[in-house]
Structure formats: structure tokens, C-alpha cells
Write a structure and sequence with these properties.
The protein has 479 residues and is an alpha+beta fold. It folds into two domains: 249 residues, Periplasmic binding protein-like II (D-Maltodextrin-Binding Protein, domain 2); 202 residues, D-Maltodextrin-Binding Protein, domain 2. The relative contact order is 0.12.
Length: 479
């Protein structure tokens, strides 16, 4: 019975959070977005109270009053959450031994958790209390207030912290305090439909090696457009990353005074090459995610988060309902010739709200267990993330490589090894308006590409002048 109740804590609570005696919130997922629906009935009240009692108050039995830690996270969904399974295992092992219970009380996407955390920090009506533990980005931690969060350096020794990937730790530091502990980090990778690409390669002579550089990518895109009868070759899930990473790789500065630096020559150069390909029809300009574009045949390949591996299915379904297998090839994101090999660093960290000394020590036990290689590496690869400790890359992956022999996870494993070995991680700058700048830039750029699609002249001189005109129009739209 105790084991059943522990499972209820991590599974049932993944879909709700109690916010008021008269109602609870159920998080529903539609595609890759989440909607919040208030369910209000006597049966809902009864069910929520039963789950609350089953999920937290009756475990573990080692202590009369176990330490209960609430936890909000973003990994998976209600039906399939690797993090929930980890929490359940912790509760049934180390948690049971030490009298610690971790209760997942909210499972949602990063945007919704950001909103919920900020609302709780500001004590907005109906927002409820801040959780003890949560996964979020540095910008959210700053919005909550860094002084309200525990410095993990108080609970991890220097030798323990030395085991972590340095750049992963650095992202969670604010004013010398480690307020977000890395649990799993993501980057971007190039995902390719090998089923179609290898037919294209056989007939054109363009192989995977050509996709190591952006020069090769744009050449392949032009060739594929002709070979396929006018189809787009690639898509980019986060368009600002293309400009930001490649500008930095070529020695430029994408940002200046918390704004996009349109005067930087490296940015103008890399943007012009993308624009020429986009308006020629070679780039997929649809909204949404790369996974959808590839699974509907709208793009052959593209750049997406490593975490996207979780959402790829093994079939492409075209608009006429015909299907083909989707065999995935995963490679590092291309670099420009002469530029540094940079990989964007993404993913939130684990925050802990200040409370009692006992609770903070309990949370540190959970955090240490969660980042141990034996737990962290399988979780990271199942969800498409990078393990957070250097020792994982030196020892653990070699010993356990057989776990990643099949399909898309083997492909991701190989790409992550290459990125870790040969790339330098790049962390986007941290400032409050970053999210707004990214949204405005993406919307303005896509609108511009769609507006001028099919209008570029065949002559180099006219084409260059036209691209510069577009660039100036983009800059004006961002003012």
C-alpha cells in the first residue's frame, strides 16, 4: 500500500496542483503546448483530497513526520515522464531510508512554469505557494528574486562541484551564488530524414559530410530544391540562434546594449546567406516545430533542440496520407568555414526556495542523488539532454554505451559525444528583455522571408543589393 501511495505522489500529481479548497488545476497538453482548465465539482474535490493524502502524508514510514518537498518540472508529460519515474524511485529508496518525500505537484512546459513561479513569488490571487524545488531558467530565477533561493555551494563540496561541466555550473550562478544546479542541459543538433536524404545523396553526390558547414548546407539546399521539385530543405526551430551562434563563431557581437547589433559585419554576412536561401524557397518557413515539419514531409532536415528527440516518431505522413519510414540521422549543427565550433547551451536548472535547514538538507540529498551518473545519464539520454558531470563523458558512457545502440537514441548519443569533444558551449546573455527580443526578431524575420519569397534576382549584383535592402527593413522593424 505504501508503494502504491508513493507512486500516486509522482504520477497523479504530475497533472495537477492544489491551489484552493474549492478547485484544482488540471494541466492538459495539446501537441507541445499546455492548457489550464479549472475542474470544479464535488467529485473533483474528493479526488484531489484523496490524492493529496495518498501522495504525500502517508510516506515514508521511517519517520513519524517525513520531510515533504514539492517539485515543479518540465520533463515529459502526464503519460510519460522520465523525471516522475526517477522521483518515484528516489521516494522508494533513499527517500524511504532518510524520511524524505518528493511530490511532483506541477508538470508543464517552461513558459507556464515561469508564469506560475512569478505569480507565486508575487503572491498573486489564486497563485498558491512557491514549490520547494523547481526547474527553470536563470531569467525566471531573477524574476523570483535570487536572494530567495538557496546557494547550492552551501550543500555541495568543492570537489563535488568540480565534477560538473564548468559551463553548466556557470549558467546557474548569479553574483557568485549557485542558485540553479544543473540537472540536464540541452543543445541544438541537426536532424535529418535519412530515408530521403540517402536517395538524394545517391543521385546528387551530396553526402552527410557536406552538412558540416553552412556553406555546404546552402549548396545542398539549392540542389535539393531542384531535385525534389521545389521542396524546402531545412528548418530552424529557434531562428535567432542561427544569427547569434554564427556571429559569435566568426568573432562578432550579436548583441550590443541588450539589443541586436545590426551593424556587426559578421551578423550581416551570415544573415544574408540565410536570407538568400529562404526567399529562394529552400528553407521551410512554417511555424511550429521541426519535428512536425519533418514528420509531415515539409522539411528534409533542420536544427532543433536535443530534447526534440523525445517527440520524433518513426513515420513521415504526407498531405495525401501516404507514408514512408522516418529513419533519423543526428549530427552537430553546421559551422561556417573559418569559424569556431560553438554549440548553444540550453536547459534550466534546479532551484531551491529558502526554508528550514532540515528541508534544505533534504533537498540537497535529492539533488545529489539526481545528478549522480547512475541516475543522471539514463535520464538525460531518454529525454534528449546532456549529462551534467564530466565523469559521465570520461567513464560512464564508455561503460554503458550498449544502452544506446538502437535507433534515434544511438544517433543522439553519437552527436552528443562529438559536440562535447569538439565544441565550445555558448550561453546566451542574461537580461530581462531577452525573451521579447527573441520573439520580436523571429516574427519580423519570418514575415520578411515570406513577404519576399520568390523575388530574388538571378544576378549576383542585384541579389546582393536586394538582400541588403531586406536587412535594412529587418533592422527598421526592430527599432
Amino acid at each position: 500500500m505504501l508503494k502504491v501511495m508513493m507512486t500516486l505522489c509522482t504520477i497523479c500529481f504530475s497533472g495537477m496542483t492544489i491551489q484552493h479548497p474549492s478547485h484544482f488545476i488540471v494541466i492538459h497538453r495539446t501537441s507541445r503546448r499546455w492548457n489550464v482548465k479549472k475542474v470544479s465539482s464535488i467529485w473533483s474535490i474528493i479526488l484531489s483530497l484523496v490524492l493529496l493524502l495518498a501522495g504525500c502524508s502517508d510516506m515514508p514510514l521511517h519517520k513519524k513526520t517525513p520531510i515533504e518537498l514539492t517539485f515543479w518540472h518540465v520533463y515529459g508529460d502526464q503519460a510519460h515522464s522520465p523525471m516522475n519515474r526517477l522521483v518515484d524511485r528516489f521516494n522508494n529508496t533513499i527517500g524511504r531510508e532518510k524520511g524524505i518525500v518528493v511530490c511532483v505537484t506541477l508538470l508543464s512546459n517552461s513558459a507556464d512554469i515561469h508564469s506560475a513561479l512569478v505569480a507565486a513569488a508575487k503572491k498573486l490571487p489564486g497563485s498558491g505557494e512557491l514549490p520547494d524545488l523547481f526547474i527553470t531558467y536563470p531569467k525566471t530565477a531573477l524574476a523570483i528574486g535570487a536572494d530567495r533561493l538557496v546557494d547550492w555551494k552551501e550543500h555541495f563540496s568543492e570537489p563535488q562541484l568540480d565534477d560538473f561541466v564548468p559551463s553548466f555550473l556557470a549558467e546557474g550562478e548569479v553574483d557568485g551564488r549557485l542558485i540553479l544546479l544543473p540537472v540536464a542541459k540541452s543543445s541544438n543538433v541537426l536532424c535529418i530524414n535519412a530515408t530521403i536524404f540517402e536517395r538524394f545523396s545517391e543521385e546528387t553526390g551530396i553526402g552527410y559530410d557536406a552538412l558540416a558547414t553552412w556553406e555546404g548546407m546552402f549548396t545542398a539546399a539549392k540542389s535539393y530544391y531542384k531535385w525534389s521539385g521545389g521542396k524546402a530543405f531545412f528548418k530552424y526551430d529557434d531562428w535567432m540562434h542561427y544569427g547569434m551562434i554564427n556571429t559569435a563563431a566568426l568573432g562578432g557581437s550579436f548583441f550590443k546594449d541588450k539589443q541586436i547589433n545590426f551593424q556587426d559585419p559578421a551578423f550581416r554576412n551570415v544573415w544574408g546567406k540565410l536570407a538568400a536561401s529562404a526567399v529562394s524557397g529552400e528553407v521551410c518557413l512554417l511555424g511550429g516545430y521541426l519535428t512536425t515539419a519533418m514528420m509531415t514531409g515539409e522539411a528534409l532536415c533542420g536544427v532543433a533542440s536535443t530534447a526534440s528527440i523525445f517527440y520524433f516518431q518513426d513515420t513521415v505522413t504526407f498531405s495525401d496520407n501516404t507514408t514512408i519510414p522516418l529513419r533519423l540521422k543526428v549530427l552537430p549543427v553546421p559551422s561556417f568555414e573559418g569559424g569556431k565550433a560553438l554549440a548553444i547551451q540550453r536547459g534550466g536548472g534546479l532551484g531551491l526556495v529558502k526554508s528550514s535547514e532540515e528541508k534544505e538538507r533534504a533537498a540537497a540529498v535529492f539533488a545529489e542523488w539526481l545528478t549522480n551518473e547512475e541516475n543522471n545519464v539514463p535520464f538525460a539520454f531518454e529525454t534528449g539532454y546532456f549529462p551534467v558531470k564530466e565523469t559521465a563523458y570520461r567513464d560512464f558512457l564508455k561503460r554503458h554505451a550498449s544502452q544506446f545502440q538502437n535507433g534515434k537514441y544511438r544517433e543522439l548519443y553519437n552527436a552528443i559525444k562529438k559536440i562535447h569533444a569538439s565544441h565550445e558551449f555558448y550561453t546566451p546573455p542574461l537580461f530581462n528583455s531577452y525573451g521579447h527580443v527573441e520573439t520580436d526578431f523571429t516574427e519580423a524575420q519570418l514575415a520578411l522571408f515570406r513577404k519576399y519569397r520568390g523575388t530574388v534576382s538571378d544576378t549576383v549584383e542585384d541579389s546582393d543589393a536586394f538582400i541588403q535592402k531586406m536587412f535594412s527593413e529587418l533592422e527598421a522593424s526592430m527599432e
